[in-house]
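Appendix B. Chain record.
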Amino acid sequence: MKKIIRRLLIGLLLVLVLAGLAVALSLTPTVQTLLAQSMLAKQPGLRSSLESVSASFGRAEVANLRLQSGGAVLSIPSLQADLPVTDAVLHRRVRMRSLVAKGWTLDLSRGAVLDCGQVPAGADSTEEPERPAAEQAISAQRAKQIFGDILGCWALPGDISIDEVELDGDVLLPAGADLPPVCVHVVVKGGRLAAGSEGAFDVAADADLKGSALPLNAAALRGRLVAAFDAAGVLGRIGLKADVSAQGRATGNFPPLSVNFAAGHASDADTCTLAVERAARPLATIGARFPAATGRVEGTWKIDAESADLALLLGRRPMPVLAAVGSGTFATDTGFSRVQVAGDLKVAAGHLGIWLAPLERIGDVALDAGFALTRSGTSVQFDRLCVAISGVRPVATVRALQPFRFEAGTGAVQPADPRADWLDCSLQGLPSDWLAGWLSGCAFESGGLTGGFVVREADGAFALRSTDPLSAPGATIRRSGRTLGQNLDLSLAWQAEGGARGWQVRCAPLTVGSEGRRLGSWDGTVAQPAGAGGPIVVAGKWDADLEALAAGRAMGGIRMTGGRTATGEFSADFGNVTTFTGSLNVAGHDPSHTLVASLSGRLNPSGVGRFAGPIRFAFGTEVSELAVDGSLTGQPGTPVFVELTGGTVAYEQLRLLAEPLAAVRSFLLDGAAHATTVASPGPAAPFWGDWLGRVRFAFTHLTVGARAIDNADGILEIERDTVRLRSGHGDLSLHQPAQLEGTLAFDHTAAVPYRLNATASTDKLEASTLFPPPEPRAEPLVRGRFALAATFTGGGADWADLLAHLQEEYRLTSTTGIVRFLKTDLGGVNPEAPTPVSDAMVGTASAVGRLFSVKGDKIGSGQRSLSKNAQAVLNFSYNVAELGYSAASVTVIRGADRTWRLAEVAMTARDLHFTGTGRIGAAPDLPLAAQAIDVDLQLGLRGPLAAQLEGTGLLSTQQDGEGFTLLSAPVHFSGTMNKLDGSQWHDLLFNAARKPSTEKKDR
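C-alpha cells predicted for this chain:
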C-alpha cells in the first residue's frame, strides 16, 4: 500500500516541479502540459492523465490530474501550489510556500495491492499483478518491513519542502462483497514538511458507514499527526494522537476512544507504540521493537478492557459481560513464522449463556491464567500453563506439569516426556449447576464437586487417573421426571482412557452413602471401545446395604425391605440393539433367607424388547423357584408385560421380586428414547413404586399371609395408584377352583393410604371339605354342594398393616343336601325300667318293633312300655338324625383379631328350620377343621316334628316369621369342625325324655 501511495505522491510532486522549470524556460501552458505528461509516462508502475499545467513565476496550477497505481486511483480536479521558481531552477530546490488540493478522490476500493515488497519475478514491472481478495488486506508476514518501511522508506523526493498544506478530499475504501465503497472525507491542514524539520498536521476524517457491514452509521476521527524528517529527508519519527467516535445504527453515539500511535527510527532498532484509552482509562497498550541485528520483533502488551469497550465494533450484537486485565511480552521473527507470547491474564465473565445456553447456569465466573507459548506453523508449544477458575469460591485449577506441544491441525498433544504426567487438575468445589445441560436427560444437584486427577498422553490417547476421589456431598439425581436419589454422598475413585480408537472409564469404586451411612457401591467400567458411533458397553459388580436403604429415602423408593444386603453383576451393550445380563443375590435378616435371580434381554431402537430369567427363593428349608418372562412394547404409556410361573410361592416373596423388576423396568424404559415420564417415587408413593405394567402369573401353591391358594393364576394390572386382579383363579384350600377379582388402591392424601377390595367365588364346593367326618369311614355331618362368595376389605398404612386389619367375609349357600349334626344317642331314657338291662332290651326291642311296624308298648316280656315323653323324644331324635334340607347358608366374618365369627347360620328342611351365630378360634398353626368352635342355634319345628314334641316341654309358644314353633331353649354346639361336641343337644333331649309324662300322673 505504501508503494502505491508513494508512486502517486511522486507523480504529483513531479508535475509541480516540471511546472516550475517550465516557467523558468518561459514555456507556454501547452508546452508545460506536454512536458509534464511525457515525464509522467516514463514512471514505472504509474498510469496517468493530465488535462493541463499552467505555471508562472511563484505559482503553479494543475487541472484534472489522474494517477493510477495498481488498484489505487488518485483524481485531483484542481491543485494550486505557491513555489519560488528561481530556487527551483538555479539551486534545484523546491520550496513550496503552500499546497492546496480540494475535491480530490483517492479510490482504494478496487483492490489495491497492500504490499511493500518487490514485483514478482516474471511479472510486468509496469503493472501491478492481480491478487485475490484475501491478499488485499494488510499481511502480517513482514512486521519489521511494515514498521521499518513506514520510517526508513519514506523520504522527501529531491530537495523539497512545503510550508503549508491544505488537503480536502475523499478516500474510498472497500466495504465488502456486493457492498458500495465506504467514503471517508479527509481534511488535512498543517505544514513544515521539510528535511531536518518536524511537520504537524491537523487531521479530520468522517466516514459514512450506512452501507457497510459494520453496525455503525458514521465514524469520525479528530487528531494531530506529527512527522519528523532527518537532514537527509528520511522520515525518522511519526506520531498520531486522535479521538475516534462513532454512531451506532440502533444504539446511538458511543463514547469516544483516544488513540496514541508513535513510531521511531534509530540505527539499532525501530520502535512502535499503540495505546488506546477511553475517558483517560487505558484499555490496551502494545509496544514493539525491531532490532536491526536480530531481525526479530520484540515487545510488550497490556490490556485492561471490558465488553462495553467493544461496543463500537459489536453494535447490537449480544455479548457476555467480560472484563480482562493482563500483561506480558511477545516476540516473533520478521515473517511471523515463530511467535512467542507470555504473560498473565485475569478474566471476569457473566451471562455466558449468550454464547452457549447451558453456560448461563454458571453465573459469574473468574479465570486467572498464566502462560508462555510459542506458535510455529500449526503447532503451539506451551512452556508454562496454569489456569484457575472460580465462581463465588474457587472452583478448579489446571496446571501443566511439563512443557507440551499442541498440533492445531490434528488436535494431537505431545508432552516433552510421554512417560510422565502431563496435566494436574483439581476441583475445589465445582457447582453442580455448571453441569446442567451436559448430562444427557439427567439433572444433578450437589453441594459442589471436589477431587483431583492427572492426565497423561499415551500413544496418541489420553490416560486420566484420580489422585483424590471425586466427591459430591448431598447430591440429588433426577432423570425423566423421577428422582433417582436424594441427599446422597457420592465418592468416586476412577481411571479413564480416551483416543481415536475409543474410550473407557473405570470406577474403582463408586461409593454411595447418605446421612453418614453407606448405602452401596459399584465397581465397573463404561466404555466405547470402537470409537465414535460405536456401542457403549457397561459392566461391573455392585453391592447394597438394604437395611440402610429401608431406613432412609435416599434412593427414591428403591428399597428391598425384606433383605439385609444385596450383591450382583451387570453388563450391557448399548448398540443398535441393546443387550444386557444381570444377576442379583439378596441375603435376608435371617441368613437362611436368600433370593437369587438372573435376567437377560435385548431392546431394539424403537423400545421393543424382552427379558427373562430364573429366580430362586430360599426361606430355610423352603425353596421356591420362579421363571420370569417380560416384554416391552416400546410405546409411551404402555405397560410392561411380565409372566411369572412357579411352584410354591409366598406373596411376600413376590413383593421382594417386584422391587428388582421395577428397577429393570426403570432402567429399560427411562434409559430408552420412548421413556414415559411418571411421578417420582418418594414418601407419598405406593410400595410398588412407579411400576406401570401387567403381570400374568401361574403358581401351583400361593400363600398370602395365613391363607393358602392352590393353582393360583390371573392377571395383575398395575397402574400408578392402583393394582387390579383380573381373571384370577385359585383353590382356597378347599380343593375347589374359585374366581378371584380385586383392587388395591393407594391415596397418599388419605389418613389410611391403602384400601383393598377383593372377591372370591365358587359354586361347586363339596360340604365334606368344610365338615369332615368325625371318625374314619363315618358319614360326614353335612353332605351337599355349596356356593361360596367371599369378600376381602381393609385399609392400612402399608401392606403389613393392611393384612393385619383385613376384614374377611365368607358366605356359603346351598339348595339341597343332608345334615347329620342333630343326630344323638338317647339310650337309657326310660325311667320306669327296673334294671339297666331290661331298659336296654326295651330300647332294642323298640327299634326292632319299628323296623317291623310293631308298636313299642307291645314288645318285651311283661308287656313293658315307654313313657309317653320318652317315646316322643326318641321318635323325634330318630326323625332329625338325618335331615334333607332345601336351603342352607353360613356367613363367616374374620376381623382384625383373626378369629372367625359365624355371623349367620341358617337351614330350612320340610318341618325344621334353624338360625344361629357362633365363633371359630384362631389358634396359630392349626388348620381350620381343628379350630375350636362355638355355635348357638335356634330351632323351629312344624308339622309332624312339632307334633311329636307336644307335651315334652321342649317347645315354646313363640313362632318365627316362617310359622315354625321355636324350641324353648337354644341349642349349643362346641368342639371342633371335625369333632363336633353336641352334648348340650343330647342333654336337652335326654332330660325331656326322662321327664314323667303328664298322662301318667293324671291316671
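Further analysis of this model is presented in Appendix C.
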